[in-house]
Specification:
The chain is an alpha/beta fold. The protein is built from 10 helices and 12 strands. The chain has 2 domains: about 150 residues, Rossmann fold (3-Layer(aba) Sandwich), CATH 3.40.50.720; about 120 residues, 2-Layer Sandwich (Dihydrodipicolinate Reductase, domain 2).
Length: about 325
């Protein structure tokens, strides 16, 4: 399907052609709770349909939002201008390459892939086929965290930062969360699931990561020590296996500008809508978004290095 996003209505009342059509790949809890509601509510695009690896789940999700269910992802690509991904990372990556080849813009989930070669293939496909891409990194689109990151990135003189993202998806002392049935999360743990969130804030503020060290602790804990291009140092403690009472998210920056802490945020579906806005803007203007597939591939490179340094989970103390 050919569609010129330069003439599209961006939802702000500007005149233009028909709205971009967005297809969703994925039917799990993240798709049902975040992606689908956000796509259905978005005023600058049309939610066109759903494909999933479980046809019955795809049909149920499509019916809930009054959209078409697709039996073949390539048929969805042919009908859509944008593809939204809510799939495990190493299922997402090859499908994203196919979607880009079909001319679809890519709204990716994090991590883009857990394999460096696959992540680079997605970024390369987006560049080769000249499609826009955005990786949905929650803190970079939620309010007020997105504005906070931009404000801190505009300041110089940061000395150090400390981040933690301790999820209770697999708590040792209680019932698991709705995301505990995810095989890739069980295998890859907090390093890969929440590590991209921490890096997505640390890198734009402190610069690219130039040195990595990593160690494992109890209950899925991975601790990163990072050196950044600015010269600043940071740490990040990541886990999906924290006790419920210990779970939480925080990030503190220290430097010449003082001590600044990441604010609380909410409204994840709203953040997803803003990620779609950013993707459509990149598609219209041809200016890559800083949170694109290339940035996602860089996150995969850093996390893969950290995983190798930390060793396999069975090596935990």
């Amino acid at each position: 399907m050919s569609y010129d996003l330069t003439s599209a209505n961006d939802g702000s009342g500007l005149p233009g052609g028909p709205l971009p059509r967005v297809g969703l790949l994925g039917t799990g809890p993240w798709a049902a709770r975040t992606h689908a509601p956000a796509l259905a509510a978005h005023t600058g695009s049309t939610f066109a349909g759903v494909w999933g690896r479980r046809p019955e789940a795809a049909a149920e999700l499509a019916d809930a939002h009054g959209v078409k269910v697709y039996e073949d992802p390539d048929a969805l690509f042919a009908d859509c201008d944008v593809v939204s991904f809510a799939l495990p990372p190493d299922v997402q990556a090859p499908l994203a390459v196919r979607a880009a080849a079909a001319g679809c813009h890519l709204l990716l989930d994090k991590p883009v892939a857990t394999d460096v070669r696959q992540a680079r293939a997605v970024a390369d496909a987006a560049a080769r086929h000249q499609v826009a891409s955005v990786v949905f990194l929650t803190l970079r689109f939620a309010r007020p965290t997105a504005d906070w990151v931009e404000e801190q990135a505009a300041s110089d003189g940061w000395f150090t930062a400390a981040a933690h993202w301790l999820g209770a998806v697999f708590p040792p002392d209680g019932a698991p969360s709705a995301y505990a049935d995810s095989p890739w999360r069980k295998e890859k743990g907090g390093l890969w699931d929440v590590g991209p969130h921490a890096l997505s804030v640390l890198i734009p503020v402190l610069g690219d990561v130039v040195r990595v060290s990593a160690t494992r602790g109890p209950s899925d804990v991975v601790q990163l020590a990072l050196r950044h291009a600015s010269g600043a140092a940071s740490t990040a403690v990541l886990s999906l296996g924290a006790p419920g009472a210990a779970a939480g998210v925080g990030l503190e920056l220290r430097g010449a500008a003082g001590v600044h802490s990441l604010p609380d945020w909410s409204d994840v579906p709203g953040a997803y809508g803003r990620a779609l806005d950013a993707l459509l803007a990149a598609a219209r203007t041809g200016v890559p978004d800083p949170r694109d597939a290339a940035f996602g591939a860089r996150l995969t490179e850093i996390l893969a290095e950290a995983e190798e340094l930390a060793g396999p989970p069975e090596d935990r103390a």
